[in-house]
């Protein structure tokens, strides 16, 4: 750990990230000295059509001028499905909501400063072509409404679903002993609330503004928001919120 790395020595941090995606965050927190409690409240599964619509869109990728991804999971699934595309068909540009999403898709041409679909829609150029929007089934519509208003035809394709996982309420004792809790998505915030209500440590850290907004709507105030929507940004924000740099 370098001298300018966040230090969380002696702190206990709850990770609510989906179990299959928690490893990277857990490792970073442990590297920073934290004790980690993994209490996943969501998991990601295939879209209801098992990815057929996504594959059909990729098979016809030449019709699209832009591909838009709004979450790291959706970006990862698009990149994986498009891995065998011939380079001659890769004439599309990529827009991503957030730096973590950009990293997951292998780099994006457009990333809004404020990491929300609405912000991406505001800076998205006007046009008359087609946009492939690869998102979770439950994703909001802010971007596509804005893009359609600017002349684009938007094909929305569900790449995955986020479903709740119910942890044991017997873990309430562990929750009360933790110093902070992290949320990487609005869906995890809502899923946590379904099981535990607003029972959580005093320090609550959200990866982005949409997650923080979801927590506010559920009655959780004073949420710290990572300035960079990445796992490292989430760790840094947790350290800053705990005053442990």
UniProtKB/TrEMBL annotation:
Entry keywords, A to Z: Lyase, Porphyrin biosynthesis
EC number annotated for this UniProt entry: 4.2.1.75
UniProt cross-references to CDD domains, sorted A to Z: HemD (cd06578)
Residues of the Tetrapyrrole biosynthesis uroporphyrinogen III synthase domain: 27-235
Catalytic activity: hydroxymethylbilane = uroporphyrinogen III + H2O
Gene Ontology molecular function: uroporphyrinogen-III synthase activity
Pathway the protein acts in: Porphyrin-containing compound metabolism; protoporphyrin-IX biosynthesis; coproporphyrinogen-III from 5-aminolevulinate: step 3/4
One biological process term in Gene Ontology: uroporphyrinogen III biosynthetic process
Membership in a protein family: Belongs to the uroporphyrinogen-III synthase family.
Annotated PANTHER family: UROPORPHYRINOGEN-III SYNTHASE, CHLOROPLASTIC
Record protein name field: uroporphyrinogen-III synthase
